[in-house]
Design brief:
The chain is an alpha/beta fold. The longest helix has 22 residues. The structure holds 6-O-phosphono-beta-D-fructofuranose. 6-O-phosphono-beta-D-fructofuranose binds next to loops. It comes from Neisseria zoodegmatis. One of its GO terms (molecular function) is monosaccharide binding. Keywords: Cytoplasm, Gluconeogenesis, Glycolysis, Isomerase.
Amino acid sequence: MTKELTAIWQDLQAHQINTSSLNMRDQFQADPARFDKMHETLHGLLLDYSKNRISEETLDLLCRLADASGVKQQAEAMRRGDKINLSENRAVLHTALRLPVGSPAVYVDGESVLSDIHRELERALTFADSLLNGSHTGATGKRITDFVHIGIGGSDLGPQLAVQALQPYLQNIRVHFVSNSDDANIAQVLAPLNPETTVFCVASKSFGTPETLLNAQAARNWFCDRGLNEADIARHFTAISSNVEAARDFGITPEHVFAMFDFVGGRYSVWSAIGLPVMVAIGSARFRELLNGAHAMDEHFFHTDFRHNMPVLLALLGVWYGNFCNACGHAVVPYSHNLRRLPAYLKQLDMESNGKRRTLQGETVSWHTGGIVFGEEGVNGQHAFFQLLHQGTRLIPTDFIVPMRTPYNIGRQHRFTVANAFAQAEALMLGKTLDEARAELAGLPEAEREALAPHKEFPGNRPSNSILIDELNPFNLGMLLALYEHKIFVQGVIWNINPFDQWGVEYGKVLAKNIEPELEQTTELHHDASTNGLIGFYRRCTRDT
Ligand code: F6P
């Protein structure tokens, strides 16, 4: 850490100690303009970050931290196509995926990449539209009614989230997802389908992920076992991969293999051909709106000063709580049934990106990096883990994500849901003092009141951000996802780690390769006693079945 950074870090530590008795309740009372000063808008999105344990001084210090960490320079390096993913020697260009045609060139290794990006995007969009308008039929001439996307992690979560989120925009093809190697997943998806009217898409950046290849093989067997043959695979199987050769070797016709690029990480790839299921679900025009929304957030991120920059502010608040206020996690609660996969998506985006303990220089960090991200759709989360957010001993800042309008308009349901989101954020901030709890129990005998009041006290001063969107449409979804992408990037820069590799997921994969054959054998086992015991139990349970 440079001297300057160490000094800012120490200033923030001292500031935390000096302001630890500050209460948001008092801050709101003292400054009626707090919301005006602490919210930002961009198109149909509003970020209210006023319900945080911060003052203008906190924000100044945090912006200094971002400055001294080189956030601006690193963001420029990313945008330019520099190889900022050092451990994999790769550029990081998900922002280039949403650049409009005609944008200034972006170079990797001296080669301009925009024309390749736009060519593959067009190919995928055209293919999606050909399914939707019926010009691409199945091998027996029938119209395609179902699209099965097979992928995992970044090749699944983004598309699945977007297809669910944009449910009101769905067209005439049902889109299904298979990710888990547990056969219940593929069995349940395939059961109601007709191979003559189904198109499969094998999505794997590496085309080497065993779960995906296993499911792809199962889909292929299912297809061929139902009266269609190998030659028909050409019209029914597509692939998305940066390993185009391997996809072709699997038997997928080159015309239906869509390329990914090694300068886009899996969890940042929904904007690429990996978005094919989204294109099939909502059509090419709507998919372009999704890209435009993400691009609008990119422009905001690259060109807005830190004090008003939404991804930077969210990142700094996360650093403030995680590194200075001892927060143990971060909750994400979309008050939208259609956004119910957002927590799952953000778990991968955030924890696979910033769950690192080595600096870019390979040293062990002496500060905390990424925390635990979890969540659930509101209002359901309220009836599950909100108790801990309100009265538990741990500090867990929360993001409330709330669309203002609903396309469904059933009774007062939406208004009720929005009211609950606002109320939870208010309750977390305000809390309820012991005296207020006592006053509520005024009708009870004193002994009973005194016994009950402590249980009804809420500490309050619990932070949250509210991210409101005027409606859940493709453009706003694009802005929302890009907002979190850039937040995570900024935190990675401040922590001096690489958010774009994922070596930590490899080790278990290798061990699984050794264990799988052992499950079928009777040979002596040489693992630790626990693993031996688990394998032994499997062998006993499956011996006679
Ligand atoms: O195991 C983790 C991971 O490598 C993720 O980073 C990635 O999104 C997922 O596996 C799937 O990888 P692929 O797209 O190469 O199949």
